[in-house]
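User: Can you write out an input/output pair for a complex, sequences first and structure second?

Assistant: Here is one pair. Inputs:
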Amino acid sequence: MPELPEVETVRRGLLPRLVDRKIVRLQQRRRDLRVPLPQRFASRVEGRTVLGIDRRAKYLLIRLDDGQTLIVHLGMSGRMTLHDARSAAQHPLERHDHVVFEIEDGWQVRFNDARRFGLMLLARSETVADHKLFKDLGPEPLDPAFDGPALAGRLEGRRTSIKAALLDQRTLVGIGNIYACEALFLAGISPRRSAHTVQGERADRLIAALKQVLLRSIDDGGSTLRDHVQPGGELGYFQTRFNVYDRAGAVCPTRGCGHAVKRLVQSGRSTFYCTRCQR
DNA sequence: ACGCCCACCTGGAGGC
DNA sequence: TGCCTCCAGGTGGGCG
């Protein structure tokens, strides 16, 4: 499910119900996520107050008042949803609600993840950046300092396709299959193009397209294909604006083009693009 | 070091 | 209805 816009949407949805509030109880209903839940997880979280929630790449960083950070990744199918005490009573826990945070004011945050590709771990806040999962991550695409020349620099010498390079979180973070396809379409760049040839004006176009597609999707609450919901239960709507993703056979949306959107498989993932508009 | 393939796991969709 | 195959917003380990 979640690429940067979906994770950012979840972060924003959780903020008003979590920040400055205490987690009074934590239920672990299944520990075997992609990485097993931490030892003594409940006792290390219970009684802690949330100071803030940050995002790095596709990770949520929930800052606790004892200097720990709760790191959450949603994998492919993870959700974080809010339930107030009354609705919680009416809506019993579901099969894939693996972790439940009970907040002091009676609200709950439920972590639901059918495929269990997600993870949660605890780290000292000052060590998160050095953690194995974080130390090789590339720059944030929405950082204003990350511009065309910076992207071009990170693509230098890369012999793989530009599509694969965008999915590689060492190049830059937060891009997944949807936004890689959509940004390449907006930039008019073929997903098959060799990554190192995306330089100069092409790199300028690509970073602009990436920023635009991510910001627009955040505005729409992300893309809901199957699993993604905002914490309050609202769906995302950016999928209604897809130009190419999952649209194989549809007419290319470029005015006057008329070609059909094609699907191909690159490094095991579907790519959608227009062979006429994207070079 | 780099790039590619696969596995991890569940569920939904479509074909027969 | 049921069973089978394919596919899915991610990632990291192992291989050549």
